[in-house]
Design a protein that fits this description.
This protein is of the alpha+beta class and 543 residues long. The chain is 33% helix and 25% strand. The protein has three domains: 3-302, no CATH class; 333-342 and 441-535, no CATH class; 358-436, 2-Layer Sandwich (Alpha-Beta Plaits). The chain has helices at 3-7, 28-38, 42-49, 89-93, 97-103, 115-119, 137-145, 151-172, 187-203, 232-241, 257-266, 309-323, 371-383, 414-424, 472-482, 486-496, 508-514, and strands at residues 16-21, 57-66, 69-78, 135-136, 180-181, 208-209, 213-217, 219-222, 225-228, 245-251, 276-285, 296-304, 338-339, 358-366, 388-395, 401-410, 431-436, 441-449, 452-460, 465-470, 523-526.
């Protein structure tokens, strides 16, 4: 059992669990993509990654088809200084390179699902003057601790890097404190691991079940020469954590050191429950098209039978009613169809509108803090887990203009956010008050537009009306990618949100006439007929 979860007091294994299907192997980027597809907030992830004190990367999240499956793709794109060229299959596989090139003919620019071979050659493969990023475990600890990740996300990331350091130290005859992490200390590996930590924290997942991992065979070229598969770090990780490997008919590496370290650090069980209910599924795409394997990592959010049975039934009923189907995965994508991730509105206990939930409001009056410092403070507060943070202009005593900083958070991270306010603003005091939170049920979604997919947030009113809100970051990304204006993309996403079913556009005018006072950018639709159980659910972020 993961020591991390023992430390956090989650030993009972009851309630919800994440089941990881490793039949196509596992890597860092595949894990992030699968968790995003499961329902982790892309907006909160990007905000958190933006606080990492490392540079030279940007993130691209997209939809791809792998073995006929619609999957999420998470890509860490490096700038020219940090760029690594991972296309040279002959270099990676030596004499088998030509065969491997045919076998992996459709490669993305950064093929992170085979992270280990990339990690061991990132700065060697057509490097032309680039060098390895040599970081010790102490260096990586400093990077993570200086970030704006929540404390739990930091603990998860540090646990994964701890497993990696021990495995690499054994391979090189060093100690975890003295071994230098070359490829797994590079920028994209740090981003991958921190992203996994942020997503797990965002989803509130504590129990992780991994029965086994499939691994390929052959040899692969790394920074230290040709190595057998599994490479030494993966072999050491699996041996130390008791991870079962299942041979796959694949010439190549399926399990990367980062993927193996994630399992070693976070797995709480290898045994599947006797029975369970599927609440949601997520598919994370790999970057190479190996033969004889799907090339996707599937994760399943499961309600274990016998643990909170009623909550599981409400979640399943809500899922079917809202998707209009008994299946847990997203509907097939068509030009005028919604593309919804398989995340029920009723999934998270403390966001259940019917469950009491207390939040804390922190506030402080500031008249000598610069706008830049205040903006940075709000960024760090949101990245550290605040449900909301904003500044309200006020007129203070003696007519001085100022701001009232207001932060809404859970009781569990009140102290952490209070420390951030003291450290990043000029305040000399903070007020706090406890209050009840009444959220609407909500979940992330996605619509297809002429400018590509755009993320939306969907909320359900007590009367059963669903409102869709285009996500700012996704609209900006589509605008920058296509050259369209922000308003063009936003309006296209707003219009697409009305097209839940083919042909619904024809009813758009009549729908709008029934809601003449609807706000711009807030489209609405009625839920399909369902039992009253569908009204029980969960919410995401603070309204």
């Amino acid at each position: 059992m993961s020591e991390l979860y023992k430390k956090n007091g989650h030993e009972d294994g009851g309630g919800r669990a994440l089941i990881v299907d490793g039949s196509s192997g596992i890597s860092g980027d595949m894990t992030v993509a699968a968790l995003l597809d499961l329902g982790a907030s892309e907006e909160r992830l990007l905000t958190a990654l933006g606080t990492l004190p490392v540079h030279g990367f940007k993130i691209r999240v997209s939809r791809v088809a792998k073995s006929g499956l619609d999957a999420c793709d998470f890509d860490v794109q490096l700038d020219g200084e940090h760029e690594n060229h991972d296309h040279d299959m002959a270099w990676l596989f030596g004499e088998d390179g030509e065969e491997a090139h045919e076998e992996h003919g459709h490669c993305h620019e950064h093929e992170h699902e085979h992270e280990h071979c990339h990690e061991h050659e990132r700065e060697h493969c057509h490097e032309h003057g680039h060098h390895h990023a040599h970081r010790s475990l102490t260096d990586i600890h400093a990077v993570i601790k200086a970030s704006g990740l929540t404390q739990r996300a930091k603990d998860i990331a540090l646990a994964v890097f701890g497993e990696l350091a021990r495995a690499e130290a054994k391979a090189h005859g060093a100690t975890p404190d003295t071994v230098l992490l070359h490829e797994v200390g590079a920028v994209d590996s740090i981003v991958d691991i921190c992203a996994v930590a942020v997503c797990l924290d965002d989803l509130g997942i504590h129990d992780v079940i991994v029965p086994s991992l499939s691994e390929g065979h052959g040899t692969i070229r790394c920074a230290h020469g040709m190595m057998p598969i599994p490479v030494p770090a993966v072999a050491n990780l699996c041996a130390a954590a008791g991870i079962r490997l299942v041979p796959a008919p694949v010439h190549g590496e399926l399990v990367t050191p980062t993927g193996a370290a994630i399992v070693a650090a976070l797995r709480t069980s290898e045994a599947l429950p006797a029975s369970y209910r599927i609440l949601a599924t997520g598919y994370g795409a790999g970057k190479r098209a190996y033969r004889n394997t799907a090339g996707v990592l599937r994760v399943t959010l499961a309600q274990v039978d016998g643990a909170s049975e009623a909550n599981g039934e409400r979640a399943a009923a809500s899922e079917q009613a809202l998707l209009g189907t008994g299946r847990g995965h997203a509907p097939e994508r068509t030009p005028d169809a919604h593309v919804e991730p398989a995340v029920p509105f009723a999934a998270v206990g403390d966001d259940d509108p019917d469950a009491p939930h207390t939040v804390v409001k922190l506030e402080s009056d500031l008249d000598d803090c610069t706008g830049e410092a205040l903006g940075r403070a709000i960024e760090l507060l949101m990245a550290a887990g605040a449900r909301d943070a904003h500044a309200v202009p006020v007129v203070m005593k003696k007519g001085r203009p100022g701001y009232q900083l207001e932060v809404v958070c859970d009781e569990s991270n009140e102290a952490q956010l209070r420390d951030i306010i003291f450290a990043t603003t000029t305040t000399i005091g903070i007020r706090s008050a406890r209050m009840r939170r009444y959220p609407l049920r909500r979940r992330p979604g996605e619509v297809v537009t002429a400018y590509g997919p755009v993320a939306v947030k969907r909320v359900v009113t007590p009367g059963g009306i669903v409102r869709s809100y285009p996500e700012y970051a996704s609209v900006v990304e589509a605008s920058e990618r296509t050259g369209a204006t922000f308003q063009e993309v936003f309006r296209a996403a707003e219009a697409a949100s009305l097209l839940d079913e083919p042909g619904k556009a024809a009813r758009g005018d009549s729908d709008r006439s029934q809601h003449p006072h609807g706000l711009p950018g807030r489209s609405t639709k009625h839920l399909p007929e369902a039992s009253s159980d569908a009204d029980d659910g969960a919410a995401g972020e603070e309204a």
